[in-house]
Design brief:
Blueprint: H1 4-9, E1 19-22, H2 28-36, E2 47-48, H3 56-65, H4 68-78, E3 87-95, E4 109-116, E5 128-131, E6 140-144, E7 151-155, E8 162-164, E9 169-179, H5 182-199
Antiparallel strand pairs: 1-7, 2-3, 3-9, 4-7, 4-9, 5-6, 5-8
Amino acid sequence: MIDYERFRRTPLVRKPFDHLVVSGFLEASALEPVLSGFPAIEKGGSFPESELSFGPGFAALLEELRGPELRAAAAEKFGVDLAGRPTMVTVRGQARAKDGRIHTDTETKIVTVLLYLNPGWKDEGGRLRLLRSSASLDDYVADILPEAGTAVLFRCTDNAWHGHTPYVGERRAIQLNWVTDESVVHHEERRHRFSARLKKWLPV
């Protein structure tokens, strides 16, 4: 489902931190089964797959994202050793007014993959920006539409600042991380499960 050749051809950008943006990360034939199998998510925030129901196309994509070929390709691209590193996956379906604030990912994450699944995105809001600093969303080196099949990958360093422009509404994304060890996965999955179950009782 992943276009590995396109991924390998896409150059790594070194400044201000290691990243690449891959338009067409998914094969064209994969989009329909993935989109049709995307879980129904009515609340904001990140959900672990254990709290979601989804179709077979989406399930197949999650399996491939965790697989050895993408791991090897990402390790080669970033020049890092990902052998034996566990993976963690969360899914988002809705953006809230408070989302998109400038941040870096935690030091327990090694590489982040953000895969967007929003066909025909045209809104100025909800655009991911990779930033030179934490000062402003306008100080960016990349401004990325969350279009279906576009993936953004970056090294999780202390200067890997990113955020997205304000948007409220449906905004579908999968986040995959290779992390330092299994304790990170267990901690984050517990946190996200608790949050997901709490959201069921809260207003949208």
